[in-house]
Amino acid sequence: NYSLVDERTLNPVVDGTDELRNRPMKAVNPVASQHRMLRTSLRGSVLQSFAANLRRHQGALRLFEAGVEYLPTEADLPHERPVICAVLGGSREDRWARASGDALDFYDASGALGAILDSLGVEFALSRTEEFGFLAGHTATIQSGKQALGLVGQVHPGTAAGFDIDEPVFLLEMWLEDLARVIPDRPAYTPPSRHPIARIDVALLIDIDAPAAEVLRLVRSHRARDIRVDADIFDDYRGPGLPEGKRSLAIELRLQSDDRTLTDADIAKVRNALLGRLERELGAILRA
Question: Are residues 173 and 281 in the same domain?
Fold first, then answer.
């Protein structure tokens, strides 16, 4: 995408109260009316690209751009802030890369984020936030310790409509200068285990306002002697059949040992310990 844009690209994604991003530097002699100012956000550009592909009937869309935001300063030249901005939408693919009937959701976006940061050795957490142009309750900041790294969330339907997008679309943004500060100098290496992964699915009843990220944080931080624990959320159900004020989170637990194949007793012990922690700390109980 071009670094020079116009108001139609910037205004839908920039808060009117954001004094910094609402003062883009303007070209003296623009080559075209749509290339009149230096963009202060990549969000509008990637949403335009998403919409263009959507019009060409592309089913599952995953696009990203590594570029620069030009933020005004008191000096003559702007601060060029490097950013990665990605958008996801459409249908989820199965393990054979075929389109399925399931739509991509927030957890696909946060899963992509996790894959990137895990590969860099960066520990992170998600914290619920509100951001202009994003859907409330479906947006989170990315934190590593006290360092903010970006955000991930669902674009507000009204914002998406401004780009002629009429389906859910999710956006991930990472600020590369901040990310560089938390990447470990010495990458750690853990040899892969030769023993199989035990996979367990559990469905939890939890308060509708409880952050799903906190559930994953608790599960992934669980220590069980020589057993490694990981997890992902694959369904977030809110609707009929549940107690008022509750939602159902379906989680895949993955357990693995470095030196042995886990027995049913090993798996049950870790599962029960995790369920106990989830109930004590988050009020989450196993869905019947």
Answer: no
Beta carbons of 100 and 92 less than 8 angstroms apart: yes
What b-and-e string marks burial along 87-101, b requiring 16 or more CB atoms within 10 Å of the CB?
A: bbbbeebeeeeeeee
- H helix intervals, 70-202: 106-119, 157-161, 176-182
Q: What is the SS3 assignment for 178-208?
A: HHHHHCCCCCCCCCCCCCCCEEEEEEEEEEC
The CATH number assigned to the domain holding 25 equals 3.30.930.10
Torsion of CA 89, 90, 94, 96, to 10 degrees: -90
86 and 25, same domain (yes or no): yes
In which domain, by residue range, is 152 found? Answer: 4-182
Where helices occur in the chain by DSSP H, the ranges are 7-10, 43-55, 106-119, 157-161, 176-182, 212-220, 264-282
d(CA 251, CA 284): 12
**pLDDT tens, position by position, 175-213:** 999 999 999 887 667 788 999 999 999 999 999 888 888
